[in-house]
From TrEMBL:
Encoding gene per record: puuB_7
Key word Oxidoreductase present: yes
EC number in record: 1.4.3.-
Superkingdom assignment: Bacteria
Protein name: Gamma-glutamylputrescine oxidoreductase
Length: 427
């Protein structure tokens, strides 16, 4: 069977060394079979193992191969649609539960890093940067909203104050969230996988799930083996393919592009981001950036709907980087890559159960680093019979894309074009 390596990226090149894991080549029995060794799957596995379940994880390629090992590495709180939007959609009771959970993912990451001594360059502090007065107004109301749900580590930044945080003259202000922050995302996934194994869990790499036999004792088939389980957790997200057709109909893989500079040296790095916070702007099609542990700038942005790989990533992202930091015009780009995330029409995550024993979470819509860690906890609670928080997510309304899979990409691209114009003209 073909061995799928990590795609070339700064993260793969700087990953902590771990031994390869075997492919599944026989029949095994377990309590829970988790499909996908990204954050959702690893977080689920860890919480289940800590609660006494036997867990087997199947990964089609390598741990953290998908979005978990390729993302911008930013710990950003809440969801892709904020709590006020949820409140209007589902009412105050459900919104209160979801609002209380909106800041839990970041706490879970920090707990994991501390408990299992995960080396992933964890840094505190994330900035939302406003390009217009309208965006600044939105941040002011967002601060009030988040504080209403008990989230208090926030500071509004005026134009003078944001200049002290980021050497970019585009911004009129911003908001600092000290419970935000950034990590080396692939090393976080590798550390969580090692934690899973330290608790007796088993992870098989190069073992794609090719078929699920549903029923009272479900069976997951791989090319060379199978796993019989009491429960299945489907955690493939944008890399699930058509394994579960009813999940594919309600979501769309999208690509985001990331570049990484050569090492900038301490002086230049400190000049750009003196406190080493990560930054994302407030545009609908947003740019995001941060420093790595070895003082490179990682800069990401752009969305490719339908998740095809653009021919020249650097040509798309470098101009965005130079608009923010013209002082980097002579700096070399060492890495450029793309990774897929899963978009839903509501831009809210899809959580649920198929039959009695197949659970799933997908569709973080670009807000996955924190949400996936929360999702693992919520799925594990549901398997233990504590379903209140699971139900709060499961009851969110979800819709198939108009025109089905054939038209979902052009419709989404048209929407993005419209919002891109709004960003451009400050509407």
């Amino acid at each position: 069977m073909a061995n799928t390596p990590y795609p070339e990226s700064y993260y793969a090149a700087s990953a902590n060394t771990v031994p390869p894991r075997p492919a599944l080549q026989d029949d095994v029995e377990t309590d829970v079979c988790v499909i996908g060794a990204g954050y959702t799957g690893l977080s689920s596995a860890l919480f289940l193992l800590e609660n006494g379940f036997r867990v087997t994880v199947l990964e089609a390629a390598k741990v953290g191969f998908g979005a978990s090992g390729r993302n911008g590495g930013q710990i950003v709180n809440s969801y892709s649609r904020d709590i006020d939007v949820i409140e209007r959609s589902v009412g105050p009771k459900q919104a209160k539960l979801l609002g209380q959970m909106a800041f839990e993912g970041g706490r879970i990451i920090r707990e994991r890093v501390a408990k299992y001594n995960i080396q992933c360059d964890l840094k505190d502090g994330g900035v939302f940067a406003a390009l217009t007065a309208k965006q600044m107004g939105h941040l002011e109301s967002q601060k009030r909203l988040w504080e209403r749900f008990g989230h208090t580590q926030l500071e509004l930044l005026d134009q003078r104050r944001i200049r002290e945080v980021v050497a970019c003259d585009q911004y009129v202000g911003g908001m600092l969230d000290m419970s935000g922050g950034h990590i080396h995302p692939l090393n976080l996934a590798l550390g969580e996988a090692a934690a899973v194994e330290s608790l007796g869990g088993t992870i098989y790499e190069q073992s794609p799930a090719v078929r699920i036999e549903r029923g009272a004792s479900p069976v997951v088939h791989t090319p060379q083996g199978k796993v019989r389980a009491k429960f299945i957790i489907v955690a493939g997200n944008a890399y699930l393919g058509n394994l579960v057709p009813e999940l594919a109909a309600k979501s769309m893989p999208c690509g985001t592009q990331v570049i990484t500079t050569e090492p900038l040296g301490d002086e230049l790095a400190k000049a750009l981001l003196p406190q080493d916070y990560c930054v994302e702007d407030c545009n609908y099609l947003l740019d995001y950036y941060r420093l790595t542990g070895d003082k490179r700038l990682i800069f990401g942005g752009g969305v490719v709907y339908g998740a095809r790989d653009p021919a020249n990533i650097e040509a798309i992202i470098r101009p965005k980087m130079l608009k923010a930091f013209p002082q980097l015009k002579d700096v070399k780009i060492d890495y450029a890559w793309t990774g897929n995330f899963l978009l839903t029409l509501s831009r809210l995550p899809q959580v649920g159960r198929l039959g009695d024993n197949i659970y799933y979470s997908q569709g973080c819509s670009g807000h996955g680093v924190t949400y996936t860690h929360l999702a693992g906890k919520v799925l594990a609670e549901a398997l233990r019979g504590q379903a209140e928080r699971f139900d709060a997510f499961a009851d969110l309304p979800h819709y198939p894309f108009p025109g089905g899979q054939l038209l979902r990409t052009p419709f989404a691209a048209l929407g993005a074009w419209y919002y891109g114009l709004r960003d451009k003209f400050g509407m």
